[in-house]
Amino acid sequence: MKPIPIRRLRFLTALLSTLLLLAGPAFAYPLLNAAPAAASTDANTDADTDAKKDEVSITLDEVTPWIDDKGTLTVRGTISNTTKKAVEKPSLSLQMSTRKLDSESRLTSWKQGQAQHRTVADLEHDGTEARKKAKKDKDSGSDDSSGITLDTSFDDTIGPGTSAEFTFHIPADDLDLSKSSPVSSWGPRGLAVQLGDDTGLRASALGFTTWYPEPEFDQTKISLLAPVTLPGHSEGGLIPSDRLDAAIAEGGSLDTIAKMLEHKELAVAIDPRIIASFEAAIAEPPPADAPEETEEPDGENGEETQSPPVGAPENDDADSTGAELEAAEKQRKRLDSWYQDFVEAAQKHTVVALPYGDPDLSALRGTKIDRLSSFAQKQREIVKDVFPDARTDIAWPVAGSATKNGLRALKKSGNSTAIISDGQQPSITGIHDDAHSQTTITDDGESTIDTLISDTKLTDMSAEAIAEDNPAGALSELVAESAVIQSEAPYRSRSLFVPLPRAAASANWEQTVEELSSAPWIAPTGVDKILDSGSEARGLLRTDADAPHIRKRAVESLAEIRANQADFNSVFSDRDSADIRLDRELLTCTSAAWTLGRNANICAGQAREQSENLMDSLHLRKGSSVLLVTGEKTTIPVTIVNDSPAEATLRIRMKPNTPQLRAQETETVKVPAAETMRVDVPVEGLANADVPTTIEMVTADEVVLPKQESLLVRVRADWENIGTAVIGLALAVVFVIGLIKTISRGRPKIPEQQLADAMARAKTDDPEKR
């Protein structure tokens, strides 16, 4: 065997090294990629979400929450097969717990395991085919039919990527529930809709119904409180007309509130922002033919009036403006009509006036904008003006946020009652006790405040049902929970308090109130009736360290905004109104609703942007450089632009950077909202120079506004007079030169004869001969 040449060996070695280098990243990639994949929570979450989408599921669209001996249990829902494989020969059944779930532990156990249940209806015995067979048997003389029906939109297959509907109808007589001893047999029963095939159970959905064979016992009084508010940032703290119009439209949040007022005992907590916004939106507009006041003729401020394009219709703008005015007037009338109807209906209910914007008062306490807390509470008078009987003495801290110091501050500011949760002031009997109580707000126990205790269990379950896209199952559980509470002490009358979420009303609000209020063991009661009853002893106030609050960063941001704009507001002729607009706007970012969505920082960012826009809306129109003559007293025109929503009062100060120019402040002027004004600044040029100057807007409080402008003033001598003098001097020089030349040439000589005759005439004495 011949040895490999050294040159070829070197070549092979280099080639092998190159291949290893190229292959290295390929081998290393799986190892490098493995570590972040294991630590990627987002990736896992997305994978879990995709896995959940690729499954068979059941959604309940209707569950009869309670049924008496003459009723019918209805369970309706939808089966969704999001897999790529069909469900062949499906089995569908409705299971019911064999015993009543008369305690919270039994309700929880049923949700976790559905133990001890029986089939009350299924596809095999109660489906369409089974009913056809039963009818055929009946016609032939055999009667083995029942009133149970199961209707489905599928036959023997649920295709991939499709959905199918089903409806169970089961008369009370076919539920095999006892009627002989109503008090002992009544109570919640668990329901489970189960879907299976040859592979086993594919999907299930849970619900509840309460058996109510007319037992005789005392009803549980429940008072529901519905907040009337529209959380969200808005300029000046008032809700725009377009948003109000959307809210009163069919299905809107305020439309939902109006429908809920059909429940006589429902109490409403009204945000003054709603009242103030409607009052502003429905105010009569100024007459269309009212003359507009202007400070100067068109074109005087340096702007040219542009003609419409050639060939364009001359009345386009007029038609467009007319259509907009007509649409705005229709909207105003719609808002006015809804508002008047709402006020008339709400006057029949207990009205609680909220502080402006329904703020998280606890988050404001002890901060640089603590004063907003007292301001917001004083704004409750807006509600009082419309609803004279409105309660302005009920404070509503965010659930879990009440403290002794906070309650003491609330009482000091005029509140006699505070709404707190039973987690902070628990029952001492171990069951759901009366909502009306008292709690001490000082360490010595001498000072107390009335408390209205919210039932946390019912409140949280109501919020969960409201948040559901398909709330039927959650609502049936809510009603079952109220039945469990009734079962705790059936012969003891109790008053419970359930506030709805502190957010804009949604479609499920009405259904939640309806289901809870219509249960026969529930007696809807007004808030005022609960407060008029005697108070129940409860445990001492507990402090919740994890209570939700508006985050500190958002509050600090709002405090900074207020500090920056407070001085700026001195420019407005009506500063008090400007401060009110500012405070109202900031309060929209402290709403208790933000403790649910955690969006206060977003709102604070919007408030900051609006504040900056407002401070930029008052500015000077930049001009070109100015030529000025020394020794002359004149004026320099400056144009003020006020794009803000309020009249501004200010004066102009021009500050030259060098002493060659002298300037004076102008007189104080008032610039109307959305207008411009030209102001003349007195100046005097002292010496030749190019003088950079700064033009400032100054308020009556000597606050210099942030928007300044620079201007170059070219100061020059009086060239006209100097030119005249130079020309005159030149003419004088020419005259002198001519005179000198004339003298230098001498006088011309006179002939002797002429000279003799002149001398003879001079010597004669006869004046006539001279």
UniProtKB/TrEMBL annotation:
The keyword NADP does not apply. The keyword Transmembrane helix applies. InterPro entries: DUF6049 (IPR046112). Residues 119-141 have a biased composition (Basic and acidic residues). Keywords: Membrane, Signal, Transmembrane, Transmembrane helix. Residues 290-303 have a biased composition (Acidic residues). The chain crosses the membrane at residues 722-740. Residues 84-156, 283-331 are annotated as: Disordered. Residues 1-28 form the signal peptide. Residues 106-117 have a biased composition (Polar residues). It comes from the Bacteria. This is Secreted protein. It comes from Brevibacterium permense.
